[in-house]
Amino acid sequence: MPAPLLTRNPAMTVRNPIQNISHKVWHVVGPMNQGGAEVMVMELLRHKSPDTQIDFLVHHRDGYEAGSAAFDHEILARGAQLLTIKTPVQSGLASYFRSFKQRVRQYGRPDVIHIHLNARSGLVVLAARLNGIKRIIVHSHAALTFRGSLGYRIFAQAELQLSKLIFAALATDFWGCSHEAIDSLFARWLSRGQPRVVINNAIDVDSYKAITPAIIAAIRPELTGNRSGLLIGTVGRIVRHKNAGFLIDVLDALRQRDILATAVIVGREQDSAYCNELRAAADAAGLSDALRFVGPRDDIPAVMAALDVFVSPALREGFGLVGAEAQAAGTPCVLSTGFPTPIDMGLGLVQFVDGFDAEIWAEAILSARKITRPTFEAIAQSFTEKGFSARENTARIERAWRNPGTFPTAGEAA
Predict the structure, then answer these.
(1) Which residues, at least 6 apart from 252, have a Cβ–Cβ distance to it below 8 Å?
(2) Which of 71, 236, 379, 403 could share a disulfide with 32, CB 3.0–4.6 Å?
(3) Residue-range definition of the domain harbouring residue 358
(4) 372-385: b or e for each residue (b if 16 or more CB lie within 10 Å)?
(5) What is the pTM for the complete model shown?
(6) Local confidence band at 1 (pLDDT 50, 70, 90 cut-offs)
């Protein structure tokens, strides 16, 4: 049976050969929904050169429907393939290795396999090496911490330690979105001298230039529910370590100052139990109208521009691409110290707050709302100079794919 492949026509299982391709890259990902890693990978697809073919080996669980993820339509429209494969946990090791081999045989061995599954990348590395793939890049997108039941944490730690051994023995490159992310996934003492390189999570700054006052005026009521006053917000999947519940405390602190404020949470409700807790807590505090869940959106530049202040009390972030996206929109940011400091683009828009005292956060937000927003020209220049412009970043990464040992960023080894 042919390996699953999603094309523009889901009934098709064969696509025409790709002409004039000199380099073939597989991104190994989960379902391509909105998230920092997924946005970064999509920017690579959008800005790659025509002679680089990018395809996606999508690892999924039972119940996944190919084509259902947020970016799938665009991936297909841009000429990439979605190859699906069940995770090793779902399929079993023997079945996973057989399936991986089948996909290599059917779609051709890639020149580079670029893996984005964090601690679950180990068995992918092993499968890639067994199938003769020579360039194996493991890319860390988070400063890893494991939460949940004791049994889950024990399993996750064991999986991570095994993956570290496999990375050291078989991977060719160690990349990450920050020094913290690299150190959490790769054991320095085990390495064989593989390059350890910080890869900037760059964004398409030009897409923010198109956001006009009319667009902002149209979207703002959708975010506020037609409430007036201060609009703060955060963007990202709703899980406990993003700490969105702290926004209720912040809203209460602002209310005590007689500030009418709305906090909007934009993103997928990944942890439904936690979301129910947030709604109950907001209701108990009399703030159910002030805390708004609007789900995932595909107009993030407009969302960021519509906020008065972007607020993220995340406990820990590998990089925190949403902070860069807010700055690209010229929006002031109040961030926890769980964000790494390189997220600050030097535009005078970022305040880091240590700890979770709601009064201090409220004061920081009120101070941030007074900041004069920089011009688009100043924003674009800063992102380019710091290596966070998607177009230039993609060109550097393509050179690194083709030339082992070439630093994808401005020579920043970790």
Answers:
(1) 285, 287, 358
(2) 71
(3) 206-384
(4) eebebeebbebbee
(5) 0.81
(6) very low
